[in-house]
Design a protein that fits this description.
The complex is a heterotrimer of chains A (302), B (245) and C (368). By secondary structure, chain A is α/β, with parallel strands linked by helices. Helix content of chain A is 32%, strand content 28%. Chain A has 10 helices and 14 strands. Chain A has a 6-stranded mixed beta sheet, with helices on both faces. Chain A has a 4-stranded antiparallel beta sheet with strand order 2-1-4-5, with helices on one face. In chain A, helix 3 (95-105) runs parallel beside helix 5 and helix 4 packs antiparallel against helix 5 (137-149). Chain B contains 9 helices and 10 strands. Chain B has helices at 43-50, 72-78, 94-104, 109-123, 138-149, 168-183, 195-199, 218-225, 230-238, and strands spanning 3-14, 17-28, 32-37, 58-63, 66-67, 79-83, 156-160, 187-191, 203-208, 211-216. Chain B is globular, with a radius of gyration of 18 Å. By secondary structure, chain B is α/β, with parallel strands linked by helices. Chain C has a 5-stranded mixed beta sheet with strand order 2-1-3-4-5. The radius of gyration of chain C is 26 Å and the shape is elongated. Chain C has helices spanning 2-17, 19-39, 58-69, 82-90, 104-111, 125-150, 171-201, 203-208, 214-242, 252-276, 280-298, 310-316, 320-332, 338-362; strands at 47-53, 73-76, 96-100, 113-121, 155-163. The chains are: A alpha/beta (302), B alpha/beta (245), C alpha/beta (368). Chains in contact: A-B, A-C, B-C. The B-C interface holds B 89, 91-92, 96, 99-100, 103-104, 106 and C 2-3, 5-7, 9-10, 13-14, 17-18.
Chain lengths: 302, 245, 368
């Protein structure tokens, strides 16, 4: 059975002025870790809010666990877990009190579903009497996740849970999600970080309210249409400028240590010659495996 | 090479808590200097001292040749600043923002006119010039922010996580602006959570628990830590951090 | 200098582009001047008084004619017994009664002097004073007329009796008014802000996506303030009785019960405001500005409502504080029981119910 089915969902704000979600369709299988990958303003939060019944779509239909998001909102609200972006929790309550509160609100107790949150909770347990307002970003995240899980949701919606958090905490968070998956919970996550995409079972790339592609990360990468090359030189800026002047270049952009380049026609000799003529040294050229980010850039129309 | 930032055991204490502990570093003219660290590691505290916004508890520092204790006003005149949290006024237009920030830094009317026309053209914002900033997409706001921060041609520009949440293409366009500016002699001091952006820097410093635990070029750091990516370097250093959790 | 001007330009831009704040900035003073201009009057016009004319002779008729001729009073003559006078005062229908004794004319004829009795409702000492002065001056006028016509001095002495507040103490008026004001401000603002804060912080989102019913959210926010406000009432009463020497003639439990009702009314207003606003700042602005002025003006404790233009009098009926003020005065100062205030209680209860139903119906179960 599919846990989430979305069909032609549309949402505008400000009376026709801003088209935030443009006829979006996708589905999520039960027990899947599904990623909605896209930058700020691409429509992720609006989609999440519609799926958690907080917003009504302008048109289109969607179901969560078989329940319609408009008519059956009450059932959905009873069973999903939701962690909105920039979740603040109750600053004046302690970790313990927050957790107890959310458990009670859902008609359960912390004890009943402790096994679900144990791995995460033990990391913050020794601070359990500290007020949520005084926690670090990483700890708040972990607490928020616990609060969203404590009632054993069937589907968990996490809206940008790792935004603004350093790479170490981000990595740890995704490891926690993977372990949660093993419990059979369907998890739908949104994130602007492309590197997190590879950690999902399937992903949907989204920009400007439109879905660019839906598939497993592996397939999306495999479907990259061009040959991708990674080129290094002693100065990235000079390298980029030089490539811009190369007639056979299709697209080039910085990518960490290397520049990623696609060509209309490729000749290693000619490229090297052109770069050397620009005064570049220590040139290294090799073939590169595309990443999700490369695919995203390609899909954005460059 | 000219040194534009020089610090020696710069420290900031809040009561018993040492937020930034004996920071010693040098940044050269035209360098793109990456300032990395986990949340709570002390990056913001350190940056505020360098911007002349916070008086150090002890230690020495000169920014753009000015002493950080006695000449903060001069420091502020010679640096630019942009953060993710605040950049431009949403309820003013593009041009009004340019004129405002330029005016604050003492640019003459003639200069303002010239620079604003040039800026708008370079960013491709001719049609949006008289629109409110709130109507611009995030990526354009970021680029405009940066341009406004360097409008008065400062010696150093401090960027606090400038590309958070922006799509990959716009991020690179932003870095194009940084490259261009650095090429013309502007020193860029940038903090970021994107490890690939760390690679774009000439040198990086990594703060853990208030101290600078590493300072070198990305290539050297990777060799020294036996890592194949900056991600790994960060992970190795920051994993054991006590602060933050 | 140039920097300063640049900054100035920006500040002007911010202010002029914020339409809502501009509305308050310019709209409020205009509204205030107009309302204060019309409402602020200590003069009395068309005050309802009762005349008990035991004499029913030519002299009394002349006196009555004089009274009717003045613009100050509207006479309701039909009262006969002392009991009925008492009742009229209790119901708050009249503020003053004039009793002309049966031997008025004969006293004047034979002794050249007579008495009339003036009874005033001094729970509002200022109005009582004003009204007694007016009546006295009319009586004096009549006295002068008689003197002039006859050539010999006549004297008509008004014997004044101040009901409920013989010493004409201001606190009798003041304390009930302040009680209404304080409860109104605290309850409305605190509830509104508390609910809106959840919206602003984002925790409301989580609550919405949960089995927790909106009604529960709202009620659980109101109850702490209900209890705190009752404590407030107790403190105000204690201070009034022991420090200000204000007696409480009526039943204290009834007073607390009515206070509870009024508190609930105010809490409901707070809930209603929170449903319509999205930021704490606006919620606070509306609660303070929007509630304070009408409460002070239209509750009647500073400016008697009867003296206002009809339009404003009608508006005052919608202000809950007005009814509560009457209820508190009736219990505390006039010593009335429930039978004397059931009408006002019903009105307050009705308002509360109405607001509650509307708030719950419009409570957003979604974000937009």
């Amino acid at each position: 059975m599919e846990a989430v089915v979305v069909s032609n969902l549309t949402k505008t704000y400000g009376g026709e002025k801003v088209l935030a979600v443009d006829h979006v369709s996708f589905s999520v299988n039960k027990g899947e870790l599904f990623g909605l990958i896209g930058p700020d303003g691409s429509g992720k939060t609006s989609i999440f809010r519609m799926l958690t019944t907080l917003l009504l779509p302008d048109s289109g239909v969607a179901t969560v666990d078989g329940f319609d998001i408009i008519k059956d909102y009450r059932q959905i609200r009873n069973t999903v877990g939701y962690m909105p972006g920039k979740f603040s929790l109750y600053q004046d309550l302690s970790i313990e009190e927050n957790l107890n509160f959310f458990a009670t609100v859902f008609g359960t107790t912390v004890k009943e579903n402790y096994h679900l949150i144990k791995d995460i909770y033990v990391q913050i347990e020794k601070f359990k009497t500290r007020r949520a307002g005084k926690l670090s970003g990483g700890m708040k995240q972990k607490l928020a996740l616990c609060c969203a899980l404590i009632h054993k949701p069937t589907v968990l919606f996490l809206d940008e849970p790792t935004t603004g958090v350093d790479p170490v905490s981000r990595k740890e968070f995704w490891e926690m999600l993977k372990r949660l998956k093993e419990q059979g919970i369907t998890i739908v996550v949104s994130t602007p970080y492309m590197d997190e995409a590879t950690l999902c079972d399937r992903i949907a790339l989204i920009q400007n309210g439109k879905i660019l592609s839906i598939d497993t990360p592996g397939s999306i990468v495999a479907n990259y249409p061009d040959d991708l090359y990674a080129i290094k030189a002693e100065n990235m800026y000079k390298l980029l400028k030089s490539l811009e002047g190369y007639s056979q270049r299709k697209n080039s952009y910085a990518f960490g240590e290397y520049a990623h380049v696609t060509f209309k026609t490729y000749s290693e000799e000619n490229v090297k010659k052109h770069l050397q003529e620009s005064g570049l040294k220590d040139i290294v050229i090799r073939k590169a495996t595309p990443t999700i980010e490369d695919c995203f850039i390609k899909l954005l129309g460059h | 090479m000219d040194t534009v930032i020089q610090t020696e055991k710069l420290t900031k204490r809040f009561g018993d808590f040492i937020a930034a502990n004996e920071i010693t570093l040098e940044v050269y003219k035209g360098e793109i200097f990456g300032f990395l660290g986990a949340n709570g590691a002390g990056k913001t505290t350190a940056m505020r001292m360098l911007c002349g916004l916070s008086t150090p508890s002890s230690g020495k520092a000169t920014i753009a040749g000015f002493d950080v204790y006695r000449q903060t006003e001069n420091i502020k005149k010679n640096i630019g600043y942009m953060s993710q949290k605040f950049s431009l006024y949403d309820d003013l237009t593009v041009l009004e923002n340019i004129y405002f920030f330029g005016g604050i830094y003492g640019l003459s009317d003639k200069q303002l006119k010239e620079k604003s026309t040039e800026l708008v053209k370079r960013l491709g914002l001719e049609r949006e010039a008289t629109k409110l900033v709130s109507s611009l997409p995030l990526g354009w706001k970021q680029k405009l922010s940066f341009s406004v921060a360097v409008l008065h041609e400062p010696k150093i520009v401090f960027l606090d996580e400038p590309t958070g949440g922006v799509d990959p293409v716009t991020r690179r366009q932003f870095w194009d602006l940084i490259y261009e500016a650095a090429d013309q002699g502007l020193t860029v001091f940038v903090t970021t959570h994107y490890m690939d952006e760390a690679e774009y820097c000439n040198r990086i410093s990594l703060m853990v628990d208030g101290r600078v635990e590493a300072l070198d070029s990305p290539a050297n750091l990777k060799t020294n830590f036996g890592a194949s990516s900056m991600d790994e370097v960060f992970y190795q250093l920051a994993r054991g951090a006590k602060r933050g959790d | 200098m140039k920097q300063f001007i640049t900054f100035l330009k920006k500040e002007f831009a911010h202010v002029l582009r914020d339409r809502k704040t501009l509305l308050i900035l310019f709209g409020m003073p205009v509204a205030q001047i107009l309302i204060f201009g019309f409402a602020l009057t200590n003069e009395v016009k068309n005050a309802n008084i009762v005349v008990v004319d035991y004499a029913k002779d030519e002299s009394s008729q002349k006196l009555l004619a004089k009274i009717e001729a003045s613009q100050y009073f509207e006479i309701e003559k039909m009262v006969i017994s002392a009991d009925q006078i008492e009742k009229a005062f209790q119901e708050g229908v009249i503020k003053l009664a004039l009793v002309i004794p049966s031997n008025f004319a004969s006293d004047l004829a034979h002794q050249n002097h007579a008495q009339v009795q003036v009874i005033a409702d001094a729970s509002d000492p200022n109005t009582a004073n004003t009204l007694t002065n007016y009546i006295s001056s009319i009586v004096l006028d009549y006295q002068q007329e008689l003197t002039t016509n006859a050539g010999i001095p006549y004297r008509i002495m008004p014997e004044t009796r101040m009901l409920y507040n013989p010493q004409l103490k201001g606190v009798y008026n003041f304390v009930p008014g302040v009680m209404a004001l304080v409860l109104m401000l605290v309850c409305v603002m605190m509830t509104a802000v508390s609910i809106v804060r959840e919206k602003e912080m984002g925790t409301m989102e989580i609550l919405l996506v949960s089995p927790f019913k909106p009604l529960m959210v709202v009620v659980s926010k109101a109850i702490p303030y209900l209890l705190l406000s009752l404590i407030n009432v107790a403190v105000i009463l204690l201070l009034s009785v022991f420090v200000l020497d204000l007696p409480i003639l009526g039943n204290i439990f009834l007073l607390f019960a009515e206070s509870t009702l009024f508190i609930i009314t105010c809490l409901t207003i707070g809930i209603f405001i929170s449903v319509k606003t999205a930021s704490q700042q606006v919620a606070m602005l509306i609660s303070l500005m929007g509630m304070m002025l009408p409460t002070i003006l239209f509750s009647g404790f500073m400016f008697p409502i009867e003296n206002m233009p009809v339009a404003l009098q009608v508006i005052s009926n919608v202000v809950p504080a007005k009814w509560f003020y009457i209820i508190v005065k009736s219990i505390m100062i006039k010593g009335l029981g429930f039978s004397g205030i059931w009408k006002e209680t019903l009105i307050l209860a009705g308002m509360t119910l109405f607001l509650l139903v509307v708030s719950l119906k419009t409570f957003k179960i979604r974000l937009a």
